[in-house]
Amino acid sequence: MNRISHIARTVGWAGAVTLTSLLASWAAIGFLLAHDAKLTVVFAVVAFLLDALDGFLARRLGTASEFGRMLDSMVDAVNYSVLSSLVTSQLLLPGTLGWIVGFVILACGILRLVLFTVGGYETDGDRLYYTGIVTPHLSLAVALVYFASRIVTIDEWVIAAILLVLAVGQLSTVRTRKTGVLVFWIPVSTLIAIGALVWL
User: Fold this and answer.
1) Where are the alpha helices (DSSP H) in 34-95?
2) For residue 23, what is the domain's CATH number?
3) β-sheet bridge partners, residue 130
4) CA 69/CA 138 separation, integer angstroms
5) Does 182 have pLDDT greater than 90?
6) What is the distance of C-alpha 39 from the center of its chain?
């Protein structure tokens, strides 16, 4: 019991939110494998919102830690890299090509997350930057390509090329400023979830 209590204290409230985000992502994967695109998108959005909340909560409670940062990156690997690779291989590009592209998305995403966990942010004065395309942005791109493919016919090789460039871009030197603009991302992601329920 002492070990369980110690783990619970280490995880804390922010870590509990992180694990709830993982649960939502796990549900999204389950619905994806059950061929329910609507609920896949809805639970993926829930996972994203919870992922955005955990860091905010840790900072507010003053409980940010190395453990929390590593836990967040581990969960991000599932929330974004695993889920994006599965959407690619199951919905966008079913078949051999999709499995190849999905693997590149997954491998580059995990490498990017490990590099970030070890190296942290780049700094420029008081500004913080991510290096490489961040995994949530890649996931958003996969979702947008999927929505676009429902409207117009897109050649599978064009889809593959777009996603491969973005996947490898996770390991690039492209810098993205860390803004933490939840006031933007919360309504945008909510609209994506509502759109999925109405349209898919």
Assistant:
1) 37-61, 66-76, 83-87
2) 1.20.120.1760
3) 176
4) 20
5) no
6) 16
What was the pLDDT predicted at 181? 58
Q: How many structural domains comprise the chain?
A: 1
First to last CA, the chain: 46
* Residues 69/10, Cβ–Cβ less than 8 Å: no
pLDDT at 125: 80
3-state secondary structure of 132: coil
Tokens representing residue 63 in the block: 């409980």
CB atoms closer than 10 angstroms to residue 188: 11
- Owning domain of residue 72: 2-199
Residue 15's identity, in one-letter code, is G
Average pLDDT over residues 33-57: 90
User: What one-character-per-residue DSSP string does 87-128 give?
Assistant: HIIIIISTTHHHHHHHHHHHHHHHHHHHHHHHH--EEETTEE
Beta-carbon contacts of residue 143 (< 8 Å; ≥ 6 apart)? 41, 44, 87, 192
